[in-house]
Amino acid sequence: MSRLTIQPVDFDAPAQRADFLFLLDHYMRGRTGNGAPMDDALRARLPEALRHRTNVLSYLAYLVENGESRPAGLINCVEGFSTFAGRPLLNVHDIVVHEDFRRRGVARALLAHVEDVARGRDCCKLTLEVLEGNRGAHRAYLEFGFQPYQLDPAMGAALFMEKKGYP
Fold first, then answer.
1. CB neighbours of 143 closer than 8 A, spacing ≥ 6?
2. In which element (H, E) is residue 58 found?
3. Comparing C-alpha atoms, which of 113, 124, 119 is closest to residue 80?
4. What does DSSP assign to residue 163?
5. What whole-number distance in Å separates Cα of residue 150 and Cα of residue 142?
6. How far apart are alpha carbons 72 and 113 in whole angstroms?
7. 48 neighbors 42 (Cβ within 8 angstroms)
8. Where are the domains of the chain?
9. Disulfide: which of 25, 140, 153, 156 matches 38 by Cβ 3.0-4.6 Å?
């Protein structure tokens, strides 16, 4: 029998810091990441940088089987603010389920957990972005209740864009 537990990442705890970096690196190496391992400089500075960001929330999912706890998933969220609602919002920035644990409800459990966190913070909504080609994740998000964002159907759905190049 297996059991899933979800807990906030304690970046001061070496084991949790290692699990966080392991799962994020796994995500980065994959097709929906950038296809490359996390570089050593990022690995060295990221936990400390996140420790000081009060608007960034990170949670680890552990699957406990036969008394052994293994890191199965990770979700990173960033709290923002909706000027239209005058309330905070919670953006799911990263969600990863290790390939050994996919299709076992880990992503759904992580999303449900941050949905509860968002309610507790009086957030007006959860947001996320998903790659067009990531059909499995897209389907999962729709099943969870996410919808493309639009204010006016005549204007169409919002597009996620970025501008890189800042040191």
1. none
2. strand 56-65
3. 124
4. -
5. 15
6. 15
7. no
8. 2-155
9. 25
Q: Which residue, 124, 97, 122, 119, is CA-closest to 108?
A: 97
Q: Would you identify the CATH topology of the domain 2-155?
A: Aminopeptidase (3.40.630)
pLDDT in tens, 123-162: 999 999 999 899 989 999 999 999 998 889 999 989 888 9
165 vs 59: CA distance, rounded Å: 29
Q: Residue 66: is its pLDDT beyond 80? A: yes
Give the C-alpha distances (Å, rounded to integers) separating 25 from 10, 18, 40, 73, 98.
18, 10, 11, 12, 10
CB 101 within 8 A of CB 4: no
The pLDDT tens digits of the residues spanning 20-59 come to 999 999 999 998 889 999 999 999 999 999 999 999 999 9
Q: Which residues contact 132 (CB under 8 A, 6 or more apart)?
A: 138
pTM tops 0.90, yes or no: yes
> pLDDT category, 109, cuts 50, 70, 90?
very high
